[in-house]
Write a structure and sequence with these properties.
Chain lengths: 246, 455
């Protein structure tokens, strides 16, 4: 299988890249930090004993660079990409985002607008090659209004909506959209935050996402308990949500 | 019951409101880890770096004036490996367990491993860890070629025996006090198979134990012993001697071993669950488990190297009070008598250890503060109660008198005057540290307690 990973150097993306590499899939790593890409490519090569995957710089905050980066990624895989996976995103706490509107603007731009634009580029290429899977890591934060993730959750809600709608539109034509919804995962992105219940390590989350991407499931919660948790939260009456800090 | 703070203000972590940091012995301070995949970023300006938190005492805890330490465990990339020679370069947060399960199927194993695989490479360097093969392979630091370190002034420095040797040798076993270890280049050991050939033998008393350990060292690459230190009198120090070597391909099962399933201790036991009497029963049963005088056979490497890793969070067996490990090395001269006297000091003060490990060490290593020296090392686990401090004081006085020393990685309770009396090497270590860090901006709870660093 030919796989492109944007965000492969850190967190869940790193864990997912290791799973793909371990089963000898052909990889292209994408990310904004060239030095980090080189280190991650070396890590995958030493862990598997095989060759190093290609690394293509791509910054989600620079949509003008998307076409060229995608050209290079598709070229590195001889023009065929079976799965395009995006784990890259910005995160910050609601308090920080309320205090720093420039940061909030960047987060909305990167996590929603630019991610959608990137997926649109990829969708066209996948239609041209006759199909493929676009898997994007959204979040349970986008499932229901909650106090601690208003702005981040809004971006992810929009992203989930886009992915699910596009899956309805294009599955028949061979392009499948997979929306992965992790809960709290212990990575550099969430370091320093108080741990809520059901916090998970990146490896099991990546393993569950991998199975869903292989299968082409439209929506997957990781760990799976979050499907139930979010179902309950979505049905809690508003007067309860006013009182909850969660 | 009100939990009294121990020397230097450590408290049982169960009594602290989060966020709190603790050593493996569950004694801790308020504080948190700063974690990131990018170790160069996260160590900038940090007071200390911490790996997987397996040191027992306060060596990975921030000094009292700080609340945050950098954490390495997300920096877990293996950067280069040469299958012809075994040379490997990794980020400091890679665990030895990752190296074991990545490279064992390819015929390589960490050159030295402590009794748990859940330690980072950076931690293995900072503690200059030793293992069952110390008498032939020395400490982890013997196999290290170079280190990349963020030193106190913020620079990132490469060091090795030929580049900044003072920094290099001070960092091996330097408890992370000379700088933040970012990358380590060392040599993995080539192994003929992934399985261990193992012999276990019942030993009647401690003098025999020391003699048999020293005898086995001549022919076996890996040795250690479990000692019953709850039984007094003639049977004092009876136990089970373990000897091992890697299986030759012809003896090994056809497939390489896979990681074993693990269980987790689900909750903290009540403090009274582990007491003198249950400890005695446990020791008796463990000793009697070895019913034939000797057994041998092929063993899974995890069962041989990491028996306790099968039980995650086993510190919960000690309850909320926390515990410490006391590990010392006694020089070779009169070692059998010294070992008996050590156990007598322990039992006469009613110290009963559920776990007591004995190992003969080879010569002192290259690290300026590296723990082992030629002699016999003994490690005992001690739960915290109102007698533990006095017991550690008494054991330290005995060790000073015997010309031995203690392992900083295990220590939470030693007094500074005792440590200075057993460490003539301390002043030269501190001189190197001062040269690289004049204001002692990198320090730990332990270095404040033992070296008199500013709080």
């Amino acid at each position: 299988m030919n796989v492109v990973l944007l965000g492969a150097t850190r967190g869940i993306g790193r864990a997912l890249a290791r799973l793909y590499a371990a089963r000898n899939d052909r990889l292209v790593l994408m990310g904004r930090d060239q030095a980090a890409l080189a280190r991650s490519a070396a890590d995958l090569a030493t862990r598997t004993g095989g060759g190093a995957p290609a690394a293509v710089p791509c910054d989600l905050d620079d949509p003008a660079g998307f076409p060229e980066a995608l050209d290079r990624a598709f070229e590195a895989l001889d023009g065929r990409v079976d799965a395009f996976v995006v784990t890259a995103a910005l995160f910050d706490t609601q308090d920080h985002l309320e205090d720093d509107l420039a940061r909030a603007h960047a987060l909305l731009r990167v996590d929603f607008t630019n991610t959608v634009v990137l997926c649109e580029h990829v969708r066209r290429r996948m239609l041209a090659q006759g199909g493929g899977t676009i898997a994007v890591f959204s979040s349970v934060a986008g499932d229901a209004p909650r106090k601690p993730v208003a702005i981040y959750g809004a971006a992810k809600a929009g992203l989930s909506h886009y992915l699910s709608s596009m899956d309805l539109r294009y599955r028949e034509k061979g392009v499948r959209f997979v929306c992965v919804k992790p809960g709290f995962v212990r990575t550099g992105m969430t370091a320093g935050l108080p741990e809520p219940p059901f916090a998970a390590d990146p490896e099991p989350v990546a393993a569950r996402a991998l199975a869903a991407i292989d299968k082409g499931s439209p929506v997957v919660y990781a760990p799976s308990i979050w499907r139930l948790v979010m179902l309950v939260i979505r049905h809690l009456p508003r007067f309860v949500m006013y009182r909850l800090g969660f | 019951m009100q939990e009294a703070p121990v020397l230097g203000g450590l408290r049982p972590v169960a009594s602290l409101s989060p966020p709190a940091l603790s050593g493996w012995g569950q004694l801790g301070v308020p504080g948190r880890e700063r974690l990131d995949e990018n170790l160069a970023r996260v160590t900038r300006g940090a007071v200390l770096t911490r790996g997987l938190g397996r040191s027992y005492g306060d060596s990975a805890l921030p000094p009292p004036s700080h609340r945050e330490v950098a954490g390495t465990r997300l920096a877990d990339r293996i950067l280069a490996f040469d299958p012809d020679t075994g040379w490997i370069r990794t980020e400091a947060g890679v665990s030895l367990g990752t190296l074991v399960w990545t490279f064992l199927p390819r015929g390589f194993f960490p050159p030295v491993t402590p009794g748990t695989q859940f330690v980072t490479v950076g931690g293995a360097v900072a503690s200059d860890v030793h293992g069952k093969n110390h008498h032939v392979a020395g400490c982890f630091g013997e196999h290290v070629a170079s280190l990349r370190i963020r030193v106190a002034d913020g620079r990132v420095v490469d060091c090795g025996p030929d580049r900044h040797p003072d920094l290099f040798y001070a960092t091996l076993g330097g408890m992370g006090l000379t700088g933040h270890i970012l990358e380590v280049t060392f040599r993995m050991a080539k192994i003929p198979s992934g399985w261990v050939f193992h012999e276990a033998e019942r030993i009647a008393d401690v003098e025999t134990f020391v003699a048999r350990l020293q005898e086995a060292a001549g022919t076996w690459p890996m040795t250690m012993g479990w000692v019953d230190c709850a039984t007094r009198g003639h049977g004092l120090g009876r136990g089970i001697l373990q000897r091992g070597r890697w299986c030759e391909p012809s003896e090994a099962p056809p497939v390489p071993p896979a990681p074993l399933p693990r269980r987790t201790v689900p909750v903290r036991l009540p403090n009274w669950a582990l007491n003198r009497w249950t400890t005695r029963i446990f020791n008796e049963l463990y000793y009697r488990k070895q019913i034939p005088r000797a057994t041998w056979g092929v063993l899974h490497p995890e069962r041989f190297f990491y028996p306790l890793d099968a039980l995650r969070k086993w510190y919960r067996l000690y309850g909320s009070r926390g515990f410490t490990q006391y590990q010392c090395v006694l020089p070779d001269r009169d070692a059998p008598e010294r070992a008996r006297q050590f156990l007598e000091v322990l039992t006469s003060r009613q110290g009963a250890s559920p776990l007591c490990v004995i190992k003969d060490c080879g010569p002192q290593g290259r690290g300026m503060l590296s723990f082992p020296m030629k002699g016999i090392s003994i490690a005992v686990d001690l739960w915290m109660d109102e007698r533990t401090q006095a017991l550690v004081d008494a054991l330290n006085e005995f060790v000073i008198d015997a010309g031995g020393r203690i392992y900083l990685t295990k220590d939470a309770l030693t007094r500074p005057e005792h440590f200075r009396a057993m460490e003539p090497r301390l002043s030269s270590f501190l001189a190197v540290r001062r040269a690289w860090d004049p204001t002692l901006s990198i320090r730990s709870h332990q270095s404040v307690r033992l070296f008199g660093d500013p709080p």
